């Protein structure tokens, strides 16, 4: 009887799990090189989960000892396999075999982690890696990325393709511009409302609108046109393989890989 009771309780528990599965966040740390303790992985996964919520995407940390490609190629491929081309995300690679590191960005993370921001982040990462502080390097990547996401995309931001030199500018509204736009729109709306109201103040019982005679609808072709984005092209020398993303501090340097667009940068330690 006791065993039957235990089996019944166990069956009910399994049934509840099947009917109401627990929500969990997929692991963001792929520690192939065994650089982190279990406690450190838990901390990093939590920081990554918080950043995922901010960017509506995924961020990762991967360590390896068996990479035969360049750090950039490995990181781009890893990120593409995880989130797909041009989706929101980033990955921080620590390559112990080649003593290199790389941060690869995609989607909105390209715009959040501009070249100048990346340069500051990578300086901190390299310092920690050179000292053997791998956990601190990974933690710095997540915390600084989160801070930059909170700061938002800088005004006047643009992307520059390092291979073609094509520059794409994006209009980013500042909080002050948003407040001014809302204020002006509100004033114009109120003026329009009171003007129309005063114009059509007619007595209900003495006037009837001939809606049947005037209920005519004329359909016309409509086309959509993209605004607030424009492209200029100029030739820019390809950057050298150094410690930052590309050296164009005012924007984000990008490159094409496997059908997707990626940003980022890295170096050796």
Strand content: 15-25%
Q: What is the succession of H and E elements?
A: HEHEHEEHHHEEHHEEE
Give the termini distance in whole angstroms.
65 Å
Radius of gyration (CA) equals 27 Å
CATH architecture of the domain at 22-153 and 259-268: Roll
Structural class: alpha/beta
Most strands sheet: 9 strands, mixed
Helix content: 40-55%
Instruction: Quote the CATH topology of the domain at 22-153 and 259-268.
Output: Diaminopimelate Epimerase, Chain A, domain 1
Number of helices: 8
Adjacency order of strands in the biggest sheet: 1-2-3-4-9-8-5-6-7
- As residue ranges, the low-confidence spans are 19-23, 232-249
How many beta-strand elements? 9
Structural shape: elongated
Mean pLDDT: 82
What's the CATH C level of the domain at 22-153 and 259-268?
Alpha Beta
Structure, explained:
It contains eight helices and nine strands. By secondary structure, it is α/β, with parallel strands linked by helices. A hairpin with a 2-residue loop joins strand 8 (252-257) and strand 9 (260-268). It is elongated, with a radius of gyration of 27 Å.
